[in-house]
Specification:
Elements (H helix, E strand, L loop, with lengths): L1 H13 L13 E4 L2 E6 L5 E4 L2 H11 L3 E4 L2 E8 L8 H17 L4
Antiparallel strand pairs: 1-2, 2-3, 3-5, 4-5
Helix pairs in contact: 1-3
């Protein structure tokens, strides 16, 4: 199952030419010194958003904050399983997240 999710995650990131996937055992994307998406060992996927977007998307998607290794990842929204079927729409959200971290003060 994790391999299937990894393949989907790679396909998703391929749709976003402004950045590349990083990490071997924990796939993620980062820019400007900030990680902004992550695939955990359980095959769950989280995307980082601004505070307003987090609250809006959690309500709209009926989801919660993303967790990895038992810790709640501040700023990350858990992407529901049903959304994995539409990588084009997910790419839009991933690009939104990239734009968000690029707007932050570089680390």
């Amino acid at each position: 199952m994790w391999i299937d999710k990894l393949s989907l995650y790679d396909a998703l990131v391929e749709k976003c030419p402004r950045f590349k996937r990083k990490g071997k055992t924990m796939p993620y994307t980062s820019a400007n010194g900030y990680m902004f998406s992550l695939l955990n060992k359980s095959g769950q996927f989280g995307i980082r958003f601004s505070k307003d977007a987090q609250l809006r998307y959690m309500k709209e998607w009926d989801t919660t904050y993303f967790k990895s290794y038992g810790a709640t990842m501040r700023g990350y929204v858990l992407i529901p399983e049903k959304m994995w079927a539409d990588l084009d729409t997910l790419a839009k959200y991933l690009n939104e997240s990239y734009d968000y971290v690029m707007s932050l003060e570089p680390k």
